[in-house]
Amino acid sequence: MKKFFLTFISIVSLGTVTSCSDAEPQLYNNNKDGRLAYFTSGTAGSFYVQNVTNPEFLIEVGVTDVTDADRVFSISVDPASTATSDQYVIDQASLVIPAGSHIGTIKVLGNYNNVFTAGSKLILNLDSVNDAEVASFDNIYELTIYQYCPFVMADFLGDWNADEVGYAVYNSTFTAGTETSLNEIIMSNIWDVNPNSQTKVYFNDSNPSNFKLDFPVYTSNPLYVDPTYGQAWIDRGVGTFSACAQTINMRFQVRVNAGFFAVTQINFFRP
């Protein structure tokens, strides 16, 4: 039997949001230091490896002047890298700055089957460039490599097992909601108190490295009518999901007018 404990506590945050930004390529003018070589698109990037043929990520290397001959450059993998050699391949043929150009590229190929959704880091050192000096700045590049599967609504609909920590495993059925722009999914039987309940959850895939669950305001998520406390709602919901592993982890609190029940955690998996 589910045990109910009502608490009276102030609202606190149950999760955090992460974000990332892309740096614009930058080319320094030639200066008194002569021909300088460096990474021109900043010093960090994110490579989301999909299950396609030869997924690739390009890293720019630039010099402050041009020459009439190709310039080969060399790089090395820093020992601090956590990415393993079976997760990526560096195309050695790409390590050239063409004649008449300021910019060359490093082509990194990802191995979808061996990378992880949590990511691993490939740290590259720019060691040398023909007829140029490696700058004392922007000479190390950190590439985080993730396994990436796009969110497909149809893949998440249907029956799920809801493993509620400390309670039991029960069935929940997911159907598509009407707010399609927010990837709304309606979950039945959350908290195992009403098989006909409908809980709205938004599957937020806007950040490829952080697929997360968003929830509407609690008044839009009525759950059931408690015999003691009256109307109950889903509130303070947070969570994450994996489109690759087909898993969902969700936390929330059931709210009534008198306060909040303890935090509930549910891990969903397919039957």
Can you offer a commentary on this structure?
It is a single chain. The chain is an all-beta fold and 271 residues long. It has one helix at 153-156; strands at 6-7, 36-39, 44-49, 56-63, 71-77, 88-91, 96-97, 103-110, 120-129, 133-134, 140-147, 158-164, 168-176, 184-188, 198-204, 212-214, 222-226, 230-242, 247-256, 259-261, 264-269. The chain folds into two domains: 6-15 and 151-269, Lipocalin (Beta Barrel), CATH 2.40.128; 36-147, Sandwich (Immunoglobulin-like), CATH 2.60.40. It has one helix and 21 strands. The strands form three sheets. Strands 1, 12, 13, 14, 15, 16, 17, 18, 19, 20 and 21 form an eleven-stranded antiparallel sheet that branches. A five-stranded mixed sheet has the order 6-8-4-2-10, with no helix packed on it. A five-stranded mixed sheet has the order 3-11-9-5-7, with no helix packed on it. The relative contact order is 0.17.
Question: How would you concisely characterize the structure shown here?
Answer:
The protein is built from one helix and 21 strands. The chain has 271 residues and is mostly beta strands.
Quickly list its features.
Lipocalin, 1% helix, 2 domains, Immunoglobulin-like, eleven-stranded antiparallel β-sheet, 271 residues, 21 strands, mainly beta, five-stranded mixed β-sheet, elongated
Give the helices and strands, then pairings.
Layout: E1 6-7, E2 36-39, E3 44-49, E4 56-63, E5 71-77, E6 88-91, E7 96-97, E8 103-110, E9 120-129, E10 133-134, E11 140-147, H1 153-156, E12 158-164, E13 168-176, E14 184-188, E15 198-204, E16 212-214, E17 222-226, E18 230-242, E19 247-256, E20 259-261, E21 264-269
